[in-house]
Amino acid sequence: MSAGNAVYEYAAGRLRAFRSNRNLTLTLCYAIALVAGRALGEGASGQPMLALAAPVAVGVLIRMGGSIESADFVRFAAVHLVLGFLFGDPLETVFWDGARSIAHVAFALLLFRAARTRGLIRSPIYLMATLMAVAVVSAAPGVVIDVVRLSLQGALSPSPLMVGPLVDILSMALMLAIVLTQGRGCLPTTPESGHTEEKRPGPIEHLSAAAFAGALLWFSLDGGALEAVLAGSIALLWFALRLGLFATTVAAFAFAVVELKFGTGRDLLIDAADPAVVEALRYVKVALLTAPSIVVATVVYEQQRLRRLFAYRANHDGLTGLVNRVGFAERLEFQARRAGSGHTRFLLMLIDLDHFKSINDTFGHASGDELLVTVAERLRSSMRATDVVARLGGDEFAALAPVPTVDDAMRLAKRLVETVNQTCEIGGVALRPSVTVGGVLAPDNATDPQRLMQLADEALYKAKAAGRNGWRFAAMELKDDRPSAATWRPEDAEVAMETVFLD
Known about the structure:
By secondary structure, this protein is an alpha+beta fold.
């Protein structure tokens, strides 16, 4: 192993160890978010521009799949004390800020758990709707704490009570959207998805979209033109339509940060004299400008997910999860075209589960279905990840596998039959299933999909007639345009005609 690979493996291992340490990950993320929120500064009303610590903690806890513990409150309080000491904050300020943030975390998690328990999170659209509802309702504890604090200090005024909830709502909505869509905001394009024609956006498109949106936003800040701000929000739709949900949430967050940090409020349609009112309107404006892109991105993501789900179900067997007859026919045609052009040699195997009817008649269809699932798993495990295993219907299976030689094909068939022919327990009864296999090679035997299926079926029929729990390959058919010596050898035909059975 080279030095570079060793360093990479070490760094990857340390990262995995860090992620597996729940307490360390949660505490560090909370502290970093608290520092980032302090770095953004405060608004005109004295409220933080964005409160990031609470939503980051909520998002991390949701992603980890666990609930908050009493020790977590102690850790959060310790973070506030340490950072308050480092920043020179009064102890009273540290207490109220910590209480406000911790209450925000606890209430938001309580709401999210209640929504998940009631089954409200069924799709990305329901998830985003739940996040918005959690962001709005979880702002209530902050209002109560602000009222208590200001009342005790004798400084109760509408300004912080007006801006504080807006800060909490916007911060929670944006940060939860980012944390919960990270790694999930763009569906992969795979052969199984049925939509490989969709071209994934590359780095250049990401950079172009970011540069365009940033230029419009900067122009709006420099000139204070409402038209440019609206154009910048429309540019976010580029992210929504092309770059995925996660990229859209990150862009919306960046849009909000830049607008809140550097915006002047001169582009507001309502002219207000009170700085707190102006600041509140800025939060409303940012929410209205960023929300459409996130909504569109969520809808687009959901449509892509459903389209791939329907394509998957159309090409896969509902019981075993293997490719179904339609999907197998498409893959066979593709492999046959490649074999006909001399690009590859592959093995087609038709596989029948032996004596399956007697299993259904004796133990019932539920046990029969369980046996089919078990056999399907064994067939899949005996093949490579790149091979195709399908259920054609009933107890009929099939497989496609590229093979360099006939000997490799024979070894693959042997491994497949031996893997299935192991004892398993179905419905409390020990059974030892077996399969019979008929195989054919392309382009050695043929390159037409229908002819390949016919030859494999004939080989399967002969193997069944001679006995079961074994395999037989079709004999080679010499054609006028016979394959070259590199892809076909006369001695292969002698091996391919053999029928092999297991005891």
